[in-house]
Amino acid sequence: MTADPAALLARDALDRLDRWQPVDPRQEVLAAQYRAFVRGDAGPRAEAVRRDGGPQHLTASCFVLSPDLDHVLLCFHRKGRFWVQVGGHTEPGDTTLAGAAYREAREESGLDALVPFDPDPDPSTGAPPSPPVDVHRHDLAAAFGACRTHWDVGFVAFADRGARTVVSDESEDVAWFPVDALPAGTPDDFPVRLATVLAEVRHRRRA
Fold this sequence. Notes:
Elements: H1 5-19, H2 25-38, E1 39-40, E2 43-44, E3 56-65, E4 71-77, E5 83-84, E6 86-88, H3 97-109, E7 115-116, E8 134-139, E9 149-158, E10 171-178, H4 190-206
Parallel strand pairs: 3-9
Antiparallel strand pairs: 1-2, 3-4, 3-6, 4-5, 4-10, 7-9, 8-9
């Protein structure tokens, strides 16, 4: 019998969260809550990663950074009316959570030449999947429909600031910003979130 793709994706998400040791203690506390949310009594819960699995579910996002970590690519979200990193729901064809994040990044930015941070190894080697860099749980406004809470899992990719970007149907603009000069209209906690992501990346680069 063929395994449910969503169940495999939930297993992938849990494997990544289990391997992650965040630099920030607050992220460690939240990551533990994520593991409990995804891990069911009988194994990883497929509904935890599906958009139709209930009002609360995992999403996958990607912080697209310049290689020198000085700039971040943001999109102006059409529904949310804010500047934020690219990302969104998983899709039936997604086989890994990181893959979903990078797919969303390509779709929402138009950038094909993304270089994943901590790229996943060849599955044939049996090596474990790369952990995320960020988790962020947030409630949603009525404009988001049946979705009430997103348990977002963040990854990082690098891109050339000179590469051409394309605005998607879900956003009104895509632009690069200095990480220390973010635009008006980002969520209140976004500067702290981005700083935590940058600290995570720098820590892994030194390791």
